[in-house]
């Protein structure tokens, strides 16, 4: 396809992905309050100040928090933010498929199979990361609110709270795609399982640093809850790549060689077959040429 056709195809795929996100976002706008309660419910159950109940238990202060909307336009802005986040997460199967459909025409048949597997495995991994972010929010909030001094009151601005939720959901979801990307690179012959295994120290450190930067709260608990599953998935991906490399070597002994590495050649001499007699090569009619000179059954041209 020429460049213009590729750009037109990209535009169509992006349009379909955006339409899917918009449709889900519109539906989420209708159920915005229920979604907001679903997102804030576990956190408020963990650290929320109960109405009509004292904030102290047994004479000891019990830190708690309340969610507030600051400003006249804050509820409207928060409604759009929550609905858009819901649209991106729920429509992930659609835009992941559109990504695969854009790449599929340029792939071989076996590569299309791998790309389709990327969509099939990528959606559950993304949703698993999003669910993990949702699950650790109450624990993270409890650990952070527990640091509040006795005479202080915690107020969670709603827009800031949903920014944290959105960032954690997207970051956790995308982080869970890293092992899948490594497996695809291995199936495509870019990296080997042995090389990935040699990277494990650097990868553990890199994943930890990434988790520390990516988590908006910055507390060690949330960082560990993000880093630990990714490390486990990384070693799981390494095992899959090692198994795939072994399977590939059984079918092709030179599969593990790099592009600039020569393969082993079989230099064992082989017997030459019997001489085969051939007819003389025809020549154009030339009165000065008496014909080809025969040597052991061959003409001089042969």
UniProtKB/TrEMBL annotation:
Q: Name one Pfam family in it.
A: TatC
Instruction: List the HAMAP family.
Output: TatC (MF_00902)
| Residue ranges of the TM segments | 14-32, 82-103, 115-137, 164-185, 197-215, 221-243
Membrane topology, from the record: Multi-pass membrane protein
Which species is listed as the source? Streptomyces milbemycinicus
The protein here is known as: Sec-independent protein translocase protein TatC
Q: Which family does it belong to?
A: Belongs to the TatC family.
Instruction: Give the keywords, sorted.
Output: Cell membrane, Membrane, Protein transport, Translocation, Transmembrane, Transmembrane helix, Transport
Which gene is annotated as encoding this protein in its UniProt record?
tatC
């Amino acid at each position: 396809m020429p460049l213009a056709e590729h750009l037109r195809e990209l535009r169509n795929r992006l349009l379909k992905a955006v339409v899917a996100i918009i449709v889900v976002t519109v539906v989420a706008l209708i159920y915005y309050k229920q979604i907001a309660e679903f997102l804030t419910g576990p956190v408020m159950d963990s650290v929320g100040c109960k109405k009509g109940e004292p904030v102290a238990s047994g004479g000891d202060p019990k830190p708690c928090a309340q969610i507030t909307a600051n400003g006249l336009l804050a509820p409207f802005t928060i409604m759009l933010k929550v609905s858009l986040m819901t649209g991106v997460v729920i429509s992930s199967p659609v835009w992941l498929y559109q990504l695969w459909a854009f790449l599929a025409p340029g792939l071989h048949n076996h590569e299309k199979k791998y790309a389709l597997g990327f969509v099939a495995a990528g959606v559950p991994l993304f949703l698993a990361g999003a669910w993990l972010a949702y699950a650790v929010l109450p624990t993270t909030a409890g650990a952070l609110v527990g640091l509040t001094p006795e005479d202080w009151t915690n107020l969670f601005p709603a827009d800031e709270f949903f920014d944290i939720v959105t960032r954690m959901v997207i970051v956790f979801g995308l982080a869970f795609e890293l092992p899948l990307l490594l497996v695809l690179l291995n199936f495509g012959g870019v990296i080997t399982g042995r090389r990935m295994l040699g990277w494990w120290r650097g990868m553990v450190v890199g994943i930890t640093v990434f988790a520390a930067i990516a988590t908006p709260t910055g507390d060690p608990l949330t960082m560990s809850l993000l880093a630990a599953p990714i490390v486990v998935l990384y070693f799981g991906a390494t095992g899959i790549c090692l198994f795939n490399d072994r399977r590939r070597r059984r079918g092709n002994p030179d599969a593990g060689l790099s592009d600039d590495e020569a393969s082993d050649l079989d230099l064992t001499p082989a017997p030459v077959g019997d001489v085969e007699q051939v007819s003389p090569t025809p020549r154009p009619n030339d009165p000065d040429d008496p014909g080809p000179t025969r040597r052991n059954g061959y003409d001089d041209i042969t």
